[in-house]
Here is the input.
Amino acid sequence: MSPTRITVGGERPYDVVIGAGVLGELPALAGAGAVAQRECQVAVIFPVCLAGIAAEACRALVAAGYRVHAEEIPDGEAAKEIAVAARLWSRLAFHRIGRSDCIVGIGGGAACDLAGFVAATWLRGIRAVLVPTTLLGMVDAAIGGKTAINIPEGKNLVGAFHPPAGVLADLDTLASLPKLEYISGLAEVIKAGFIADPTILELIESDPPAATGPGGPVIELVERAVRVKAAVVAADLREAGPREFLNYGHTLAHAIERVEEFGFRHGEAVSIGMAYAAALGRLSGRLDEATAARHCDVLAAVGLPITYRDGAWPRLRSAMAVDKKTRGSRLRFVVLDGLGRPAILADPAEELLEQAYREVCL
Ligand code: GLY
Here is the structure.
């Protein structure tokens, strides 16, 4: 089956290529619009657990005539450290990576964020091609151009908007993804369903177990979620308007991640955050009962959490106050005015916030 190509519009449009066994497309993406491939260098950044996929990617690039440099990074969030970025900058200097060269980032959300950040900052910006290997990476982290590393004061506080030159979502890489990681990625897919594409919800609801692994409707789910994100970021790269809707469920989710010292899966936090946002929407008279209940039903059906610890509210509330998406001291939540109709709830009453929290308490 030929891969699907979804173009993300904007100042510098790029393609997200989705399909099984599409790693062979990497040389074309890495070189698109650049100088002759034999003069082009590619730095391939990957965590050690993906050495096999990285080796395959390097072989394809070498066979196409690129000079290739493989650079290993730590697994997971440990990659998003300034020391890791600094080591990579030194390696790029050593290899004399220039403006017409390319960085390929292979891995989950953290590897994509780091690779994008290093590409954004090296020589004030060189091309990056991202090869997400997790469901979350495919439908969210690799698309949209936000790149970042963490500092002790907070997650993603240092970064840049730097859209990739291409994204390659090879669905074969999902086969080795641990089940809980896969299910965590489904939270962002389900989010896309609630804010923009209810067919996603219908696909999952028709056979929840089939949706929890990389068979079943995975291709259609990934394609639909990518189309939702692509449309939003094409219209609003810098989050001046509708891009904020992608944060559905994320205000509470970021607070949970902070309280858990980032030892909580992002998708699981987003799942609880969406259950909370649904309660907020319903209690504020904006969302109907049935759509609010549908959140908990579909999230729980695929094994995502919809409750969090009783007694945690004071810490979560303080964590929300320092979220980088608050404006001044005013909290902003994305809620739904109906299925597929996201809107902003600004500065909600404290009692409403607490009442909604009681609905997601264990
Ligand atoms: N890199 C993730 C985003 O731009 O949303």
Observations:
- The chain has a mean pLDDT of 95.
- The first strand starts at residue 4 and ends at 8.
